[in-house]
Amino acid sequence: MIMDREFPSVLFPSFYNSEPPDTALGHCAGSWGCYGQLRPLTPQTSSSTHRFKAQHEAAGDVWCHTEPVPVPLFSPKHAVLWPSTPANPLDFSEHLQNFFVDHPSDAFGSAAGLLGDKMHFGGRQRKNAPELQDSIRVKKMNHFMDKLKYQACPWTLTSTRVDAYSRLLSDAVHSVPVELLAPLLHEELSLQSLDAAFCEANTGGALELIPFPSSTEGAPQSACLVYCANGVDKLTFQQVALHPGAVVSADEASTFVLKGPVQQISSSSTCGHSCVAVRSLYHCGVWSVSPSQQPHLLQATSSAERVSCVSFSPHVVGELLVASESGAAHLWRLGRGMQLVRSEDSNLYFNGQSPWRWCEFSAHPRVMLYADRTGAELTDIRVQPSSCHTLFRISKGAECRSGERLLLCRYLSPLHSFHHLVTTQYSAYVLDERFPCVPMLKWDHMMDSPPVFCHVLPGSGPSTGAVAKVLLGSQCAQEVMLLQYAGGGAEACVSRGPPQALLRPRDSVERLPAQIPHRTELSRARLTYSATGLTAVHLKRSTSEESFVSFKCYKQETFSTKSWKRPRLQTNHGPRDQSSERTSLRLVRRKVSVKKPHPSGNSGCRN
């Protein structure tokens, strides 16, 4: 990793106060539309014109979608393909076929009357009934089939007298006391309601794309897409090729069935070695990935407490940080075991009422970032006890709001060696570990759901003036927000343009081919699945146009969307019609061009 040690000579003025936040905005727009802090652009003299530079610039790169809908990367398996155009109103046979497919219970529910001669669906058969002698009793047959799957427990004790008393006194004597059952049921329903709105176990996302270096010049770049195929415990490694205008997936994929649901997937490519770390509730595993060999498991470990984070080291190959909900953070060195580096039995700054913990590496290999819902600290693990310094906390200094909580931390090593990204349910912050407690840059991301997924796309380096792109994603609302900023080296950080919301699958139902109403409702239901991960990669880079493709995983479906922006020389011009300049994206699998996608399938933070 190239270390960028430059620091801005002049920062934007800011105010620091470590007291608890008490800001309550009277509107819902946050600070959107504000220029933020200002600083003089040139030394001021008596004869010079006053010129200032704003921290939030209105002009920026404008990105547009090349496809009106998200495109499935993989074709549906064992699915009935719907026609792209509605059926002819006078074609009775096609309408009857659609009725059989869409309403099988109504279409074939009368089959019992047709089978009445050979199948008896009633109660006990009458003796010596000539019409029922050769018939099959369906109730008896179902009872026999159910007994084949039944496994009797050898320790079960039955008593006719006890069963009789239980039925007689069931309204007064309960198996579980109501006073005990009621609060447990209320607690379980409350937790399920909170998890449906915001599941903190999926923080970080279960989707990663690992690009491999190209072996020959001019050949398409290969990559490995790692995701959870069934949304539960099926880990899949899929080889893909990144062409300038398409993403091609290989026919074969490597699959591993884990012992628990996949919660997070993290990757690292250091010194030519690519590894993938997978986190479930109580287990962690590391796989080795290469373009020439099949993925294989390097090491796995288990924990007595729920694991909340796993992250790779960008400095040393085979080192990871593992954090658990007990407050412990371990340094995991493959082949050498675990080392406890920090343990906390409470939140850092105040009672955040959450056991969630998160760990990331920093610019030094032995200085880590330890975070919870109240803030983040830099911890030097070379000394015992560990030396800790505050990097970020929920306070007035960061212009936080009352009730705001930290949701995700990400070390921005691809962008800058000393920068970290911190997101809350309202804002996103860029912090420099050399100048802690005061954010270098702050956005109000304007997302409906809390951002728990993050991916960064570097330019040629922020110190040279390139624009870095940060993608934030949410779970239930399927939002993907694009933030752009520059600086951090010799110049102070500035944002380029307002946050841009990318297309969501649920918003593309109106752009799908026209279908009959109940099929449209089915498509809308499948396109509203919660997201499980977010990643992106550059497809083409030139002096006049830049494009990237983003991958988003929704339960059992993986979508790919392509975006492009107009030339840099035109970014300061006003809006104009770009329909003639848009290029289409084709996703190919098994050498078949996919031109039309197949219909596929307000929350807050827990206080």
From TrEMBL:
Ranges where the record places region Disordered: 564-607
Gene Ontology, cellular component aspect: fibrillar center
GO molecular function: RNA polymerase I core promoter sequence-specific DNA binding
Domain TAF1C beta-propeller, residue spans: 276-413
Pfam families: TAF1C_beta-prop
Biased composition (Basic residues): 587-598
Composition skew (Basic and acidic residues), residue ranges: 574-584
Stored PANTHER family: TATA BOX-BINDING PROTEIN ASSOCIATED FACTOR RNA POLYMERASE I SUBUNIT C, TATA BOX-BINDING PROTEIN-ASSOCIATED FACTOR RNA POLYMERASE I SUBUNIT C
Protein name (record): TAF1C beta-propeller domain-containing protein
Organism: Neogobius melanostomus
